[in-house]
């Protein structure tokens, strides 16, 4: 199985709410998606501390750095930009193009 890409219900730049874990209830934008692992990186959520070794040649200073760790995509839900509520997504065909639509208010998410 060379091409194990899964479809995610979220895209980079979507505003999402975290549904489970230590950051439950936090709202942030998606910085990066990884369809093969079905994980996403949410801005300001799932922060971890990593020890960074100094690299003088690259000008990187050592120490403890905080960065966002990946979250499973099933633990986030899209926040609709129109109704400002967490919502599930349905797919609809508009003008021959498949778009994501809010289940609550019917507004398009892909603009």
Task: Walk me through this protein's architecture.
The protein is an all-beta fold. The two termini are 34 Å apart. The chain is elongated and about 55 Å long. It has strands spanning 15-18, 27-34, 39-42, 47-52, 63-68, 71-72, 76-79, 86-87, 89-94, 97-102. It contains no helices and ten strands. It has two domains: 1-79, SH3 type barrels (Roll), CATH 2.30.30; 83-111, no CATH class. The mean pLDDT is 91. The strands form three sheets. A six-stranded antiparallel β-sheet has the order 6-3-2-1-7-8, with no helix packed on it. The chain has a two-stranded antiparallel ribbon with strand order 4-5. 0% of the residues lie in helices and 43% in strands.
Summarize the structure.
By secondary structure, the chain is mostly beta strands. It has strands at 15-18, 27-34, 39-42, 47-52, 63-68, 71-72, 76-79, 86-87, 89-94, 97-102.
List the helices and strands in order. EEEEEEEEEE
Portion in strands: 35-45%
Structural class: mainly beta
> What is the level 1 CATH name of the largest domain?
Mainly Beta
- Unreliable residue stretches: none
What's the architecture of the largest domain in CATH terms? Roll
Give a count of the beta strands, DSSP E runs of length 2 or more.
10
Number of domains: 2
N- to C-terminal separation?
34 Å
Q: What is the overall number of helices?
A: 0
- Estimate percent helicity: under 10%
Any idea what the shape is? elongated
Which fold name corresponds to the CATH topology of the largest domain?
A: SH3 type barrels
C-alpha Rg, in Å? 17 Å
